[in-house]
Amino acid sequence: MAKIKITTPEGNIIVRLYDETPKHRDNFLKLAQEGYFNGTIFHRVIEEFMIQGGDPNSRNAPKGKMLGTGGPDYTIPAEFVYPQLFHKRGALSAARTGDEVNPERESSGSQFYIVWGKTYSNGELKQIEKQMAMQQEQDVFNGLTKQYRNQIMDLRRNRNRIGLQALQDKLIAEAKAKSKELGKPVFSLEQIETYTTLGGTPFLDNQYTVFGEVEEGLDIIERIQSVETDRNDRPLDDITIQIEVL
């Protein structure tokens, strides 16, 4: 069982890396052993949400510099182990670019975030389940449009609006049918218990890879997530980090 220690000016955080996400685990261990994270900062901190780090460009970055795009020249395939691994408070997850440029939801090679979040009522979780169902149907539709990409392009080139509308209607119907076959996304009893008591960010579930969890130092996360930040969510006083493998 692999563990790492994140040393910060606020105190130390001990994180266990999951064996169920071996690509993310092994990559993080490799970077930590190389000292890749040392001297970088938590460059994005949002209260009641998360703290984010892992951008090598944040090392000795002057105040006001835009951060969040740095990292090695590779991404990591998504490793969703859901609903077993989810965004509870203290979860270690991989940052990534958005779906519009990254439909496979591959992870950044180095950037990560640790969840703080908040607690949710049962009613709020039901609303998120509805949003998840809509997202699932959209994901299925996007997958279908990818399969029909050449046909769609031909119809557009020929300005065949009737044909394009007919194909769109067909894909929407197929997406609804396939989404129905998959079943409506619902939170497990463990998730409901956790999100209503400990807290987290349930709206990120099955969207970003969760690959570890904090075993010691949640109080450190709590302090960091509440620090004062600038308009780009960077702490006014840099919170530098050192990461070592235990």
Q: Name the beta content range.
A: 15-25%
CATH class of the largest domain: Mainly Beta
Radius of gyration: 20 Å
Give the overall shape, derived from the CA principal axes: globular
Strand order of the largest sheet: 3-11-1-2-10-7-9-5-4
What is the fold named in CATH at topology level of the largest domain? Cyclophilin
Largest sheet: 9 strands, antiparallel
Distance between the termini: 10 Å
CATH architecture verdict of the largest domain = Beta Barrel
Family: Belongs to the cyclophilin-type PPIase family.
Protein name: Peptidyl-prolyl cis-trans isomerase
GO biological process, one term: protein folding
Enzyme class: isomerase
Structure overview:
- The protein has helices spanning 22-33, 122-147, 149-157, 161-182, 189-197, 218-225; strands at residues 3-8, 11-17, 40-41, 44-46, 50-53, 75-76, 91-94, 107-108, 112-115, 210-216, 240-245.
- A hairpin with a 2-residue loop joins strand 1 and strand 2.
- The mean pLDDT is 95.
- It folds into 2 domains: 3-118 and 199-245, Beta Barrel (Cyclophilin); 122-182.
- It has 6 helices and 11 strands.
- 35% of the residues lie in helices and 19% in strands.
- The strands form 2 sheets. A 9-stranded antiparallel sheet has the order 3-11-1-2-10-7-9-5-4. It has a two-stranded antiparallel sheet with strand order 6-8.
- The protein is α+β, with helices and mostly antiparallel strands and 246 residues long.
